[in-house]
Amino acid sequence: MKRKDFIQLSAMGLGALVLPNFSAFGKSVDPSQFLNDGIDVKLKKQLADVALNAARGKGATYADVRIGRYLNQFVVTREAKVQNIANAESFGVGIRVIANGCWGFAATNVVTKEAIAKAAERAVAVAKANSRVNADPVRLAPQKGYGEVAWKTPIQQNAFTVPVKDKVDLLLGVNNIAMKGGASFVNSAILAINEQKFFASTDGSYIDQDIHRLFPTFTVTKIDRASGKFETRKSLSSPVGMGYEYLTPTADNKVGGVVTRYKDRYDMLEDVKNATADVDQKLKAKSVEPGKYDLVLDPSHLWLTIHESVAHPTELDRVLGYEANYAGTSFLTLDKWKSRNFQFGSKLVNVVADKLQPGSLGAVGYDDEGVKCGQWDLIKDGVLVNYQAIRDQAHIIGLDHSQGCCYAQSWSDVQFQRMPNVSLQPGKEKLSVNDMIKNVEKGIYIIGDGSFSIDQQRYNFQFGGQTFYEIKNGQIVGMLKDVAYQANTQEFWNSCTAIADKSDYRLGGAFNDGKGQPGQSNAVSHGSSTTRFNGVNVINTARKI
Amino acid sequence: MAILKKEEAKALLQKVLAYSKADECEVALRGEEGGNIRYARNAVSTAGDIDNVTLSVTSSFGKRSGTATINEFDDAALERVVKRAEELARLAPENPEYMPLRGPADFKDAKTYVETTAAMTPDTRAEAVAQSIQVAKEASLEAAGFIENTTSFSAIMNSKGLFAYDRDTNVVFTITTRNNAGTGSGFAARGYNDISKLDTLAATKIAAAKASKSAGARAIEPGKYTVILEPVAATYMLENMFRGLDARNADEGRSFMSKPGGGNRIGEQLMDEKVTLYSDPFHPDLPANTWSRDGFPLEKTTWVDKGVVKNLTYSQYWAKNKGVQPVPQPSNIIMEGGTASLEDLIKSTEKGILISRLWYIRLVDAQTLLLTGLTRDGTFYIENGEIKYPVKNFRFNESPVIMLNNVEALGKTERSISIESYRSYLIPPMKIRDFTFTSLSDAI
Predict the structure, then answer these.
(1) Could you tell me which residue ranges the Metalloprotease TldD/E N-terminal domain spans (chain B) (predicted)?
(2) Which of B392, B403, B413, B376 is nearest to B187 (CA)?
(3) Which of A233, B109, B143, B366 is the most exposed place for a label (fewest CB within 10 A)?
């Protein structure tokens, strides 16, 4: 039985997440263990040196080691029931080496000097076995050692210190509001993650990091018993790189409009009340007439379009063909970048890669190959200007350093290029969402993320959403349903005609950006302000079986 | 100690259970070891070995349960983990859906373990990859591929005397070949318990032929077409439907298996008469685990018979709620086919599209199981029984339920894998009418 067989997400979403006793997330533990510091940093350094010395002793020219303790807490409920409380810890060591010019990797959950030395030797053996296949040796961008350094997510309240009872009470409170409001079903969950990562390499870095993430979420479902039709509305929360303070909103964190959205903090109880009303409206909404519409896309929706159509195609490993066998390649080929005039989008479109943004999922001090993180432009005034690269790719785009976006989901997985936060910059001119809508003759205003799919070179995509509002002659006239839009990436971004100013800028994101073989998840945020795209093709998704 | 034999696992679990003071206690053990190579641009990109083993203990007092896990196996650690699970159980809220543990059952041995697969080494994998890369180089193509072998075991035991053990091996190989101009791409995927059945050379040759033949694709209008889905394409499409064979979702009214007006579709003719789906862990071509995680023996179970829904999965709780017998989650799925080869299906097609692979399938509407996704790595126009030319890739919006109502013909069932989950299935190639393409993609 494969690990992945234990976990299946059904169409119901998170409410159907079943966390077995021995899950892919690690081992289940007493939540009080989460407050232990784990092993002392001095001991980690000793163990890391064992790995580095063992690898060098077997002929490795470079080695790095990650000693990782990964804590996950999942509190999952439906209606008046607690479905699952899972406290998982995964602890182990992953060792990556270059030997005979080739990468090798080995991992073990036995954290002793003997087991670590053995794993380092196995990593070297893997590299040497594979070097028979490779003609060109790995070229690593130089990286100075930082010595002993540390970084921690700047949280105000560690989610793991909040009693499980408080989380259960919040979720059951959320569910109660939905059921009292007429929902047929409601699923809710709080997911908390803490990555305690110690990295060391033969470059002379010893980096200790403590990374925190949180994701409160729900899905409200309402069924019209007469017709058998049902509709759902997901929460408008985001997964965040924050502590439990995310769930303590003030009036300043609320964005008014057709429905309240949230910035930097989240009001779960208010949102579920609104969601219950939304789902009722969705059942009665008009089915969309297919055709061309101007789309006004809220950041709670647009983050996913940015993720799929901008962030993924600018990953250099995709461009070069390293992902060809799985997620594919990229239409943003090197010749387009070299030309310095490839118009990815309209002149309004500026996209920045970033590993520092406070509150974001991708924020860390150092990446998983010991590179200090920063930010850089990907799209400048609509033109493709850069990619996302790691140490063994930097030379390909003429860089003498990595951009610091290497990541592994766990100690047991090899690190590779993963996207940083990739965000659309707000408009420079003062522009509110209402001002934007006033200028739309025939359009749809979309809030929340829904269905998503994009081709293997990131040209053709299709996106749904949570709620859809018809715009006629500058006015929102009611809700629509069965909406999805299809476009070609370059055409879509070149049809960008307006971006609201920075006062509307918000982050969305995902815990589960998938890539690689074996597949790994990466947590990443994408920011934007509300943005308008003209003349986009909208289809009707209603069918009958 | 990553892979324990049956008796070793049993002895360890008995020792753990002996420490329990709870009303009910279940202990579970799982170990895994294996390795992988990923390659691209005709060279290895990443590769690794991993081993891991975990022991978990779930203790219950009445309807309160707690779970704790460790990866240390000395006596003191075993006692400590049981104690911790019991402490957690006392703190936990009551679960109104808690079901008592099941007693002993007779679990047949699975046929999922093959010694030669378990014996794979980094050198074995490197050799398989070297052969694959050589094929690509000889055809002036770029190969990107992945091979992974896993040996794992799972065992559960509880205070009511239930004990179950399974050990399995698995090897998965996927290969994409692209021409240097980036105008053609081909793919093949294989998954077996037995490494001796894996021929990376032959699979790469198939992918290479597709890459060469798919260059110079023409654009044709999207719309409704007769399509022939190769097994790897059909598998990925249907896997999304297999996940929805759940009675509770259906009874609650939020599934394609929900009957309008209430209840589920068991007994209803939901698909074409050619469609029969079943599970059988003892099928020689698709051996699978013989017990479910909640302690039920797995036997042959028919889900859809000649288009009629026969069974849905029922958890213990939902079965009790509905007054029926539980139906556990299956460990494999098989679709019956016909006797035709893929070539026969092509020959019998006046006008249609041959689809080698589908990609990025996601749910659009749970009510109808409408999915969207794209064709990839070899899409060809068929006319008068012959492949005429490659065509540009399409985006589709289609429901597998509607698709299985439009079955023209099924070919011979073969072992295939899902390109997203890597799970193996037995699925036939299938000829489907009125498959809905909604737009064109420029992707190669």
Answers:
(1) 25-89
(2) B376
(3) B109
Structure tokens at B267: 């007994």
Confirm if A73 and A87 have CB atoms less than 8 A apart.
yes
Tell me if B369 sits within 8 A of B342, measured CB to CB.
Answer: no
Contact B363 A451 (CB under 8 A): yes
Over the stretch B226-248, which tens digit does the pLDDT of each residue have?
Answer: 999 999 999 999 999 999 999 99
Residue B255: closest CA among chain A residues belongs to which residue? Answer: A11
pLDDT of A15 reads 27
Query: Residues of A with CB below 8 A from B58's CB?
Result: 21
Domains of chain B and any CATH numbers: 6-211 (3.30.2290.10), 216-443 (no CATH)
Residue B175 contacts A, CB cutoff 8 Å: yes
Q: Which residue of A90, A164, A455, A468 is the best one to mutate when testing the B interface, meaning the one whose CB has the most B CBs within 10 A?
A: A455
- Fill in the amino acid letter for B13: L
Choice among A13-27, A146-160, B287-301, B327-341 with the minimum mean pLDDT: A13-27
Of B294 and A308, the one with more pLDDT: A308
**Backbone torsions φ then ψ of A250, nearest 5 degrees:** -125, 175
Nearest one of B3, B147, B150, B16 to B86, comparing CA atoms: B16
DSSP annotation of A249? -
Q: Which residues pair with A222 in a beta bridge?
A: A231
CB A60 within 8 A of CB A97: yes
Q: Which amino acid is at B43?
A: A
pLDDT, tens only, A282-336: 999 999 999 999 999 999 999 999 999 999 999 999 999 999 999 999 999 999 9
Answer whether residue A507 shows pLDDT above 50.
yes
Paired sense of beta strands A475-481 and A286-287, if any? parallel
Stated pTM of the model? 0.95
Q: Is the CB of B47 less than 8 angstroms away from the CB of A126? A: yes
Tokens representing residue A191 in the block:
């997911």
Tokens of B226: 């007769």
Of the candidate ranges A18-32, B54-68, B332-346, the one whose mean pLDDT is the lowest: A18-32
- Of A427, A458, A385, nearest in space to A532 by CA: A427
**Model confidence pLDDT, tens digit, residues A448-490:** 999 999 999 999 999 999 999 999 999 999 999 999 999 999 9
Positive/negative CA dihedral, B104, B110, B114, B118: negative
Q: Return the pLDDT at A109.
A: 85
Contact A322 B376 (CB under 8 A): no
Tell me how crowded residue A229 is: count the other CB atoms within 10 A of its CB: 16
Tell me what the pLDDT averaged over chain A comes to.
92
Residues of A in contact with B331 (CB under 8 A): 1
Q: Taking CB atoms and an 8 Å limit, are A106 and B252 in contact across chains?
A: no
DSSP strands (E only) in B159-275: 163-179, 185-192, 224-229
Tokens encoding B324: 């029926």
pLDDT (tens digit, 9 = 90+) per residue, A366-376?
999 999 999 99
CA separation (Å) from B95 to A8, A215, A282?
22, 24, 33
User: For position A2, what pLDDT does the model report?
Assistant: 35
Which amino acid is present at A199? F
CA-nearest of A448, A458, A456, A514 to A308 is A458
A17 pLDDT more than 70 = no
**Residue A179 burial (CB count, 10 A):** 16
**Sequence-ordered list of residues with C-beta below 8 angstroms from that of A118, at least 6 positions apart, any chain:** A54, A108
Minimal Cβ distance to A324: which of B178, B370, B399:
B178
CB pairs under 8 A between A and B: 299
Q: Using a CB-CB distance cutoff of 8 angstroms, which residues of chain B are in contact with residue A3?
A: 32
Does A81 contact B96 at a Cβ distance shorter than 8 Å? yes
B126 neighbourhood in chain A, CB within 8 Å: 129-130, 132-133
Q: What is the mean pLDDT of residues A22-44?
A: 65
